């Protein structure tokens, strides 16, 4: 079972919502059967990125929107794809989001990227990826594929290519989508809590 997530590093809602998804997946009984794939969607319009963000969510992570300046997100997305290649994509994603929104670091700066990711990725690989923009085509294709699927709001979640959620789903909404996905994938009537949909 797979969950595809389109996100951008200019979007604090992506960080808030993805943390909620990860928590929901970890609590799911069959979580080892779920793969989460993070997809790049460079977002130029910061106003759209900052729309509909719950103040409580911001306060929990001590995010101050006044301190957040838009950045070019090409290099952080390069690191996201490098993380996927090295089988540590989610760890890279969370480190970059935390550095950006909780620590107010400029993750568009290559020296900052090297410092933030030094425990996860080799410095030589980071340098090579930045200098060659190794994953430029993959990043562009991620966004093009999203646009073809009419994905315009971030974050966007697609469960097994069928169920779509966007922006700020609750834990209960994530649970429902995961259980529905599991039922369809395994052809079972498995239920979790109140999440029985057959």
From TrEMBL:
One of the record's GO molecular function terms: oxidoreductase activity
Gene3D superfamilies in the record: Glutaredoxin
Source organism, top-level taxon: Bacteria
Signal peptide as annotated in the record: none
DSBA-like thioredoxin domain boundaries: 3-178
PANTHER family membership: GLUTATHIONE S-TRANSFERASE KAPPA (PTHR13887), THIOREDOXIN SUPERFAMILY PROTEIN (PTHR13887:SF41)
Name assigned to this protein: DSBA oxidoreductase
Species, as recorded: Alteracholeplasma palmae (strain ATCC 49389 / J233) (Acholeplasma palmae)
